[in-house]
Design goal:
Elements: E1 33-37, E2 43-47, H1 58-76, H2 81-101, H3 108-115, H4 120-129, H5 148-164
Antiparallel strand pairs: 1-2
């Protein structure tokens, strides 16, 4: 007669594995640096740490982390990679503007200063609408402005990223003029 199977609940079969508590507020910072392979097979690094610096407060770190987490989710679940890269660059431009103006980019004042009436996007549209007659007349690194369609896409992207960061309020849009071609 063959032996019976031993129960996995038998004391001899159990191994003592102590439970180790995890630290609270642990954040996986590897999510802040991602890589995407575009349609042309070029690998583009997405580095959210460039949005942070030594003087960054906790609320900005939290917002950047939430955006990176949403970005990773969109990356995994099928949003076009070229679109994600364009969105990343558009929001990076917004952050640079807000940082240069010393405005909190995750606030209404930052959003309105960039997207609102008389804001940076409208200045860029005005530059594009009054181009110089020939390309050689532009100085090196001179701004040439944004087309109205590009500006509309930028507003949409900035709004989406601020929603991902859980800071956007629908009331902020009241102060935005329509961007028309």
């Amino acid at each position: 007669m063959t032996g019976f199977r031993k129960s996995p609940l038998n004391k001899d079969g159990l191994v003592e594995m102590p439970i180790e508590p995890t630290a609270k507020n642990v954040i996986d910072f590897s999510i802040l640096t991602q890589k995407i392979t575009l349609a042309n097979k070029r690998v583009a690094p997405i580095d959210f740490t460039t949005w942070l610096d030594e003087s960054t407060d906790g609320s900005r770190k939290y917002c950047v982390y939430k955006i990176a987490k949403a970005f990773k989710y969109n990356l995994e679940f099928g949003k076009r990679l070229d679109t994600l890269l364009t969105d990343y660059y558009a929001f990076t431009q917004y952050l640079r503007f807000c940082d240069a103006q010393k405005i909190d980019p995750f606030s209404k004042s930052g959003f309105v200063a960039y997207c609102g009436r008389g804001g940076e996007l409208h200045r860029q549209i005005a530059l594009k609408n009054k181009p110089l007659p020939f390309a050689y007349l532009y100085e090196n690194n001179a701004e040439i402005g944004y087309a109205a369609g590009t500006a509309r896409n930028s507003v949409s992207t900035i709004k989406k990223f601020l929603i991902d960061a859980d800071v956007f309020d629908i009331q902020w849009e009241r102060d935005l003029p329509k961007i028309s071609s």
